[in-house]
Every structure is written in structure tokens, then in C-alpha cells.
């Protein structure tokens, strides 16, 4: 079932929405929707458990009380399946999806909703350098910032890109202390794998209060919260399937072909032990951190 974004009020659609400003091409640095460094994202693998991955996006955007935005940007749009919900929510807005991964952008451009959405490839830092001040009414980023080292430093630029009275909404995972991540880290530190995995991208995030205080310091009115979802996953090695499309992907891609199958088999074994299947599916607790900030209006 495809999730829908709840709308707090019927939007008043402008007759002539302004076109979104196009970003420059990405430079390959650690970036929106990807981590750079030659990492190739697999849209089909990412879309496994798409409904479970999509629910936080719906919960996030449902708290954005924007009635008639003209320009909406999805920063780190991935394969575009969730960006289309923004076009449904605000049909008169110019919607742009940005991702650093060319594979994700190609997949997004092939979706049925692509006629209503402009997609472009760009790194988040490059995009921020090109984005006009106050040019975006609603800026959304779903599960992307955790891939950007030092992403708190991006917050001033993100706020700068938002129009006065506009909205910045983002969500990041907060489960990096769970076995789904720590078991991968432990195995990656063992030989023969460790010799190949130095410097591999590892996602990270902060607690909700850290984001709240940082954005308050930038003059925003902030709503921050966290939720732990209990996803019931089915199928063979479902937790491995989940992490191999996101958090574990840089590790798996960094391994040589002769070592990758052994690493995968051992990680699957450890994950099965940590997340047993009782015949009713595997329960994966997943903590996520949400922030919705409204930029101060000009005096």
C-alpha cells in the first residue's frame, strides 16, 4: 500500500508557480542520498520494504503546515517514490528532487510521477553553494543527513535556502547502537575484512535536542521528536536485506569480490541470532529522529 501524506488544510494553489532553480552537477563528495567516493546505490534493493521506509517520510511531512508553497525541494530524494507524495500534497508547487547518486536520479526520472517533478544530480554541499537565499518554501530531507560528516555545519546553509516563514523538515535514523549496525561494525573490524574497510563511510546522527537547539539558535521555531518503529519483516534474512540496501552498502561495496560472499554469510548468521524469527516475522526496532523547523518571518 502506498502511503499518503496527510494535509492539515486544503492547499490554496497559486495559478503560476515559479520554476525551481536547477542545482549544479555534483562533485562526488559525501552527499545527498549517497556518500560519494564511487559508491553505487541500488534503487531496487533500496525499495525493499518500501512501505516501512516510507512511513517516517509521511510522518515527517505530515507535520509541515505549509498551505501553498511555490517551490518544494526533496534533498536526497533517492528513487523518487516518496518525492511523488510531495507532488500529491502540493500539486501546484514546483517540485525538485535532488540526489548525489546518478542511479537514483535515473530511477526517479522513470517513475510515473516524473512528469510533475524535476530531478537533478547534485551533492548537498554543491547544491547549498548554488541555492539562492530564501528560494525554497519547503525543504525536505529524509534519511540523508546521517551520511554527511559534520552535518550540523550544514544547518545554517539549509536555513538560508528557505524563504522567511518557510519550512525545513528532516529525519535521520537514530539506531546506530543497535545490532543491525554494531554487528556489521564488529565483523568489519575482523580479518581478513578489516584490511579492506578502513575509511568506509559510516552514518551517524545526533539526538533530537541537539538539532532543536542548533536550529533555535538560527532563529527557527522548532518541533523535534523521536519515534521507535517496530517493523515486522518477512522473507529470508530480512534484516540483512534491509541493511544491505542502506547502512551496510558502503561496507559491502568496499570488499573485494572474493571476500564479499563470506562476509555476507557471516553477517546474515549474526543478524539471525540477534533478530530471531518466531514464525510471525522478524521484529526490527528502528529509532528515528524528526525535526520540523519554521524559519522566522522577516520583521
Mean of residue pLDDT values: 85
Number of helices: 11
Which H/E pattern describes the elements? HHEHEHEHEHEHHEHHHE
Q: What is the class in the CATH system? A: Alpha Beta
E-strand count: 7
**How many discrete structural domains?**
1
Q: Could you say which overall geometry the principal axes of the C-alpha atoms support?
A: globular
Report the end-to-end length measured between terminal Cα atoms: 44 Å
| CATH H-tier superfamily | Vaccinia Virus protein VP39
Structural class: alpha/beta
Let me know the largest β-sheet. Answer: 7 strands, mixed
- Helix share bin: 25-40%
pLDDT < 50 runs, ≥5 residues: 1-38
What Rg is obtained from the alpha carbons, in whole angstroms? 19 Å
Strand order in space, largest sheet = 3-2-1-4-5-7-6
Task: Report what the structure shows.
- The protein has 11 helices and 7 strands.
- It is of the alpha/beta class and 299 residues long.
- The chain has one domain: Rossmann fold.
- A 7-stranded mixed β-sheet has the order 3-2-1-4-5-7-6.
- The protein is globular.
Architecture blueprint of SSEs:
Elements (H helix, E strand, L loop, with lengths): L42 H4 L3 H12 L9 E5 L7 H7 L4 E6 L2 H8 L7 E5 L2 H7 L5 E7 L12 H7 E12 L5 H10 L19 H9 L4 E13 L4 H7 L4 H6 L5 H15 L7 E13 L5
Parallel strand pairs: 1-2, 1-4, 2-3, 4-5
Antiparallel strand pairs: 5-7, 6-7
List keywords for this structure.
299 residues; alpha/beta; Rossmann fold; 7-stranded mixed sheet; 31% helix; 20% strand; disordered N terminus; EC 2.1.1.144; Methyltransf_25; transferase; Trans_acon_MeTrfase_C; trans-aconitate 2-methyltransferase activity
Amino acid at each position: 500500500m502506498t502511503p499518503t501524506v496527510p494535509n492539515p488544510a486544503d492547499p490554496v494553489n497559486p495559478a503560476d508557480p515559479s520554476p525551481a532553480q536547477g542545482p549544479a552537477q555534483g562533485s562526488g563528495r559525501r552527499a545527498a542520498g549517497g556518500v560519494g567516493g564511487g559508491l553505487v546505490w541500488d534503487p531496487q534493493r533500496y525499495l525493499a520494504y518500501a512501505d516501512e521506509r516510507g512511513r517516517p517520510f509521511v510522518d515527517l511531512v505530515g507535520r509541515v503546515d505549509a498551505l501553498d508553497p511555490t517551490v518544494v525541494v526533496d534533498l536526497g530524494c533517492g528513487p523518487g517514490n516518496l518525492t511523488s507524495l510531495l507532488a500529491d500534497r502540493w500539486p501546484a508547487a514546483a517540485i525538485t528532487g535532488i540526489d548525489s547518486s546518478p542511479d537514483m536520479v535515473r530511477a526517479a526520472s522513470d517513475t510515473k510521477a516524473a512528469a510533475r517533478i524535476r530531478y537533478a544530480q547534485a551533492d548537498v554541499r554543491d547544491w547549498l553553494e548554488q541555492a539562492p537565499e530564501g528560494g525554497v518554501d519547503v525543504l525536505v530531507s529524509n534519511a540523508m543527513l546521517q551520511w554527511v560528516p559534520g552535518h550540523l555545519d550544514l544547518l545554517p546553509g539549509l536555513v538560508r535556502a528557505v524563504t522567511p516563514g518557510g519550512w525545513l523538515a528532516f529525519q535521520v535514523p537514530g539506531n546506530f547502537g543497535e545490532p543491525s549496525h554494531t554487528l556489521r561494525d564488529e565483523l568489519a573490524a575482523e580479518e581478513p575484512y578489516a584490511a579492506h574497510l578502513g575509511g568506509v563511510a559510516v552514518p551517524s546522527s545526533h539526538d533530537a535536542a541537539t538539532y532543536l537547539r542548533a536550529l533555535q539558535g538560527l532563529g527557527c521555531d522548532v518541533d523535534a521528536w523521536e519515534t521507535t518503529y517496530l517493523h515486522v519483516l518477512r522473507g529470508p534474512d530480512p534484516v540483512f536485506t534491509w541493511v544491505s540496501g542502506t547502512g551496510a552498502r558502503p561496507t559491502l561495496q568496499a570488499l573485494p569480490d572474493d571476500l564479499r560472499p563470506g562476509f555476507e554469510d557471516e553477517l546474515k548468521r549474526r543478524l539471525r541470532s540477534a533478530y530471531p524469527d518466531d514464525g510471525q516475522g522478524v521484529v526490527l526496532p528502528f529509532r528515528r529522529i524528526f525535526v520540523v523547523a519554521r524559519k522566522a518571518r522577516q520583521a
